Amino acid sequence: MTTDPFSTNPFIDMMRKFGTDLQVPKLDLDQMVESHRKNIEALTSSVTAMTEGAQAMAQKQREVVEASLREASALAQEFTARTDQNLARQTAFTKKVFDIAVQGVQDTAQLNRMSTADAVKILQDRMREGFEEIRSPGAKR
Known about the structure:
By secondary structure, the chain is an all-alpha fold. The chain has helices at 5-8, 10-22, 29-78, 84-135.
């Protein structure tokens, strides 16, 4: 018959007493698994938010390019001869395309800020929840 080396080991007894004296919380495996599950869900949600943001930015950039091409096509059809009137139209066209591009960059930057902020908030909220789980009065000691 063998004895459990952990039940009679004075070093283990000393460590148990040390942990008890410090009130080190006992590990709750179910709680730990649940916490890690929540962490993985938060990471998944964060990645989803970033992916959706990237898709929205790509869509916005596509819209800007399409709008610029429509304007260029319309202008090309109007120009037949080089006149002062056409020069004025070209200037107006150039300004319009520039304005479309600037607005597109601003919209894309805003989408980027929003998607990044959403992704970071998901992770921050989960970290906050994790710390609360550790500090909660229901945590085993």
